[in-house]
Amino acid sequence: MTEAEQQTLEERLAALEAERDEHLNDLKRVAADFENYRKRVARDQESLVARAHERLVKELLPVLDGLERAIDASRDTGTRSVEEGVRLVHQELQAALQREGLAEIETNGRFDPHVHEALLSQPSDAEEGSVLEVVQKGYKLGDRVVRPARVVVAAPQEADGDR
């Protein structure tokens, strides 16, 4: 084999190796793109499921509120059998919603605008900004606020000269 033929073969080999490397890089890029696509689709699907759960929970919250009002009303009228029946339904519904990830928003302590909605502020001896009363319970589904807790917040006491 002549030196010119050997050089031609080496050039051809180098060109084929470069082409192979280019195809290998293309294949790696396609594999990475596919993996990113797969992860994005999985995230989108999880988000869709979470939104479906949130919609269901929002629809069921008024039922939970109504059952709580029925329990309170039956306590006042003294009808224990109705109260017990409603209490059992309330507990079952509450347990089902908890299994779906629903949690009541904590209302003890300071007002938090991220999870509480202040309906009014009321002068009080309590620390300014603390929650005095819960008008309507708030709920979270996972880490998302489904409905903020509606609360009455402590305001500073008025001085005698302010009246």
SS class: alpha+beta
Separation of termini? Answer: 113 Å
Give the biggest beta sheet. Answer: 3 strands, antiparallel
Beta strands, count: 6
Tell me, briefly, the overall form. Answer: elongated
Strand order of the largest sheet: 1-4-5
> CATH superfamily name of the domain at 101-163?
Head domain of nucleotide exchange factor GrpE
Instruction: Classify the beta-strand content into a percent band.
Output: 15-25%
Spans of at least 5 consecutive residues whose pLDDT stays below 50 are: none
CATH hierarchy class name of the domain at 101-163: Mainly Beta
What are the secondary-structure elements, in order, as H or E?
A: HHEEEEEE
Q: From the 3D coordinates, which CATH architecture of the domain at 101-163 would you assign?
A: Roll
Mean pLDDT: 87
Provide the CATH topology of the domain at 101-163. Nucleotide Exchange Factor Grpe, Chain A, domain 2
Give me the number of helical elements: 2
Helix percent reads 55-70%
Provide the gyration radius in Å.
32 Å
Task: Walk me through the structure.
With 163 residues, the chain is an alpha+beta fold. The protein has a domain of 63 residues: Head domain of nucleotide exchange factor GrpE (Nucleotide Exchange Factor Grpe, Chain A, domain 2). Helices cover 58% and strands 19% of the residues. It has two helices and six strands. The strands form two sheets. Strands 1-4-5 form a three-stranded antiparallel sheet. Helix 1 runs antiparallel to helix 2. The radius of gyration is 32 Å and the shape is elongated. The protein starts with a helix and ends in an 8-residue tail after the last strand.
